[in-house]
Amino acid sequence: MTYVIAEPCIDIIDRACVEECPVDCIYEGQRSLYIHPDECIDCGACEPVCPVEAIYYGDDLPDEWRIHADDNARFFRDPLPGRTDPLGSPAGAQPVGPLGVDTALVAGFPLREP
Questions:
Q1: What angle do CA 52, 103, 53 make, to 5 degrees?
Q2: Residue 26 domain-assigned?
Q3: For a disulfide at 55, which of 7, 50, 68, 99, Cβ 3.0-4.6 Å?
Q4: CA–CA gap between residue 20 and residue 7 (Å, rounded)
Q5: Domains of the chain: total
Q6: What's the domain range around 60?
Q7: Cα–Cα distance between 50 and 55 in angstroms, integer?
Q8: DSSP-H helix ranges across the chain
Q9: Residue 86 DSSP class
Q10: pLDDT at position 114, please?
Q11: Coil, strand, or helix at residue 94?
Q12: How many angstroms separate the CA atoms of 82 and 62, rounded?
């Protein structure tokens, strides 16, 4: 099991976790961040710096956010909107940069006012 970014991150994208991650495994969609389940080394560095408490070790995800575990994996496993191939494992988020798209779950979430 790996760390997962859940619903509180949607429309926030603070990026403190990105700065703290020693392996660059947190990727940026349009409305949320996603932790790559194969690249995450389970160090937990991202969890305490998240200002909205959106990051959980997978086994510790609250029941209402359990769907985000598969959704984080889906971001890398399935083709994203506008792409024909899945993102896969590019071995680092920085070279990829912000992707500007999200999974259907995140894209369908009601917009939060800032």
A1: 10
A2: yes
A3: 50
A4: 20
A5: 1
A6: 3-94
A7: 7
A8: 16-20, 67-77, 93-96, 104-107
A9: B
A10: 65
A11: helix
A12: 31
CA distance 111 to 90: 29
The Cα angle at residue 21 between residues 11 and 54, in degrees rounded to 5: 35
Which tokens sit at 64?
């209402």
**3-state secondary structure (DSSP) of residue 88:** coil
Burial bucket for residue 77 (CB in 10 Å: 0-12, 13-18, 19+): middle
The domain that contains 20 carries what CATH number?
3.30.70.20
Residue 73, both tokens:
């994996």
The candidate with the shortest Cα–Cα distance to 25, out of 61, 72, 59, is 72
Quote the longest CA-to-CA distance of the chain.
36
SS3 of the chain: helix, strand, coil, percent, to 5: 30, 10, 55
